[in-house]
Amino acid sequence: MPASSCRSPSQAASDTLAEQLARAMSAVAVGSEDLEKIAAEESAASVPENVDPVYLQRNGLLGGGGYASVWLTTDVRTGRSYALKQLRKGVAVHLNFTPRCILERQALEAMAHPFITRLYTTFQDEANLYFVLELARGGDLFSVQSAQPNYMLPESWAKFYAASLSLALRHIHSKGFVYRDLKPENVLLDEHGFLKLADLGLSKKVGENRTYTQCGTEEYVPPEMLKGRGRTRASDWWAVGVFVFELLTGHPPFEGDKPSDIFDQISDYASAGDQANQRLGDLLVQNKVGASIPISMECSLFVTQLLRAEEHRRLGCAAEGFLGIQQHPWFVDFDWVALLRRQMRPPHVPAPASKPFAEEELEPQVLKLLPYDKAVHDREFKKFGPTCIMGSKI
Ligand SMILES: Nc1ncnc2c1ncn2[C@@H]1O[C@H](COP(=O)(O)OP(=O)(O)O)[C@@H](O)[C@H]1O
Ligand SMILES: [Mg+2]
Hints:
Blueprint: H1 9-13, H2 17-29, H3 32-45, E1 56-64, E2 69-75, E3 81-88, H4 89-94, H5 98-110, E4 119-124, E5 128-133, H6 141-146, H7 155-174, E6 177-178, E7 187-189, E8 195-197, E9 204-205, H8 223-226, H9 234-249, H10 259-271, H11 273-285, H12 297-306, H13 322-326, H14 336-340, H15 374-382
Antiparallel strand pairs: 1-2, 2-3, 3-5, 4-5, 6-9, 7-8
Helix pairs in contact: 7-9, 9-12, 11-12
């Protein structure tokens, strides 16, 4: 995005009432289908790149998750940089997540959205599976939170990230997938500060159906899952409620030392119905959850309407669908089109990482070279992508 196309905050502040009204009217006139069309246009404008792994050079570690290490790589022919997500085949076999790697590839291939990391190609070598992904240079939102006092972000930041994330999830849902792995560590920023949702490792194509597999981070598990009813795409909107609460207050609404404590909290909250929901909203507005400045009524409403135990009453899932989010009072006067076109100035421009992620910080299993039975498993790995030696033509 050219920097000159950013609308400066001072311009926004000096808007006349008529301009503000016009913007609010146009926001209402833009339906949620139109937002999908604009996202498709924006995504098509950045032409998928033809990456050949034989020209890729590894430059350092960007981060790691429970399964993968992610490396900064550069195509020596073009100078372009990518994120290379690497998974050890032996680890995939031992942890039984080979099918998940194939599903992650399929999910990423189905997506084309400015706020979701794009997949350029996949390949494998003797010991690893690799995804070549669009690079999000700004790090993850957990790191952004860590740099703020008490891990709390201002409400205006939370609003920008909530809107961007909602658009990304709407796209994932429109392709029939449920995301299932929301947490600040999986929400990345590009160098300008625009959001890039990463890690579709738990995404699953469900359409209108329910899915029953236990997965995702405990704090983000929706109550329907704990009741044994499985989950739908509605579970992602519950997770957005948890996520925004966490950005604002520095901690999730349901916490505990062990998973069972967290699950008890979620279940108790859900059984207490509207009363507990109201209490959570009051706590937010009255600044009793540690927020440094009071949180607006509209913002608190957004969070509590997402954190409704009944899926049919949850914001984003009730009859009005995504329009419920788009036209929510918290987003009155919010320019969704400018956000999608990346003509809105992000609230925070990430500083370039001061030091590379250290290999010692990775989860111990991630880089382990575990033996596995090739005769049994290589047939499954074949579905992942072609075999080639990275950097062999440099
Ligand atoms: N496209 C990317 N650009 C920059 N960093 C990334 C990218 N994808 C992942 N990372 C970094 O690597 C970490 C782990 O990646 P992730 O896909 O979440 O792996 P896992 O499936 O093991 O959780 C992320 O939290 C982030 O810090
Ligand atoms: Mg992850």
